[in-house]
Amino acid sequence: MRKISLVSVFFVLLSTSSTVLGQSNYASLSGTVFDPQQKAIPGVSVQLTSDSTQASRLVSSNDRGIYQVTALLPGEYKLTVQVTGFASLTQSVTLEVGQQLSLDINLKLSSLSTTVDVKTDTPNVLRTTDASVGEVVEPTSVRNLPLNGRMLIDLVLTVPGAHESHGAQAGNMSALYWRPGQRSAVSIGGHRPNANYFLLDGVTNTDPTFNT
User: For residue 99, what are the CA distances in angstroms to 79, 130, 135, 179, 181?
Assistant: First the structure.
């Protein structure tokens, strides 16, 4: 009996940890740095600076020219790439919630001190590494949208694929799907309301009983 109990607990812990890891709100940025002949460049300095906090992360590409920056909060960033013999590159990058963005970089040769400034908006990139969906509600929307009672949950309804679901509004669903007195029965991408995961400033803000 003791062995069976230990094994059961072990499997429960494994199941719990995988669920938590799958619900991370952090984004990541990775890719390969190439020269004009599409050969990988090792030892490239890749710096990512947050537009809102000015916090910077600095990494270097490995011997295969691959760089990776992990554990990034969603938002706007400035990407700066530098290495001797090539023109520096500056580019704006937008990271969504939980996004794993793959962005390859092509550097140009330079005999002078020059900088390539990419001013065009970064196009929306399909998620090719996972099936998660994330969306950032811009500060302009938070400030200017006419929210009734400043209920932040209403901002979720501006996200594509989100709508009011069964729960407190309809009163015909189990209480496990909503917390009485709170407007939290929102379905996103067809999922049940109790499958949502909420964070506040990067910290878990999810009710452990009702997932609201």
Answer: 16, 8, 9, 29, 33
User: Rounded to two decimals, what is the model's pTM?
Assistant: 0.59
Is residue 46 included in any domain, yes or no? Answer: yes
SS3 59: strand
DSSP 149: G
Whole-number Å distance between alpha carbons of 66 and 60: 8
Domain count, the chain: 2
48 burial level (CB within 10 Å; 0-12, 13-18, 19+): buried
Using one digit for the tens of pLDDT, what is the confidence trace for 13-26? 333 333 344 456 78
- Domain range for residue 165? 139-204
- Between 79 and 139, the higher pLDDT residue: 79
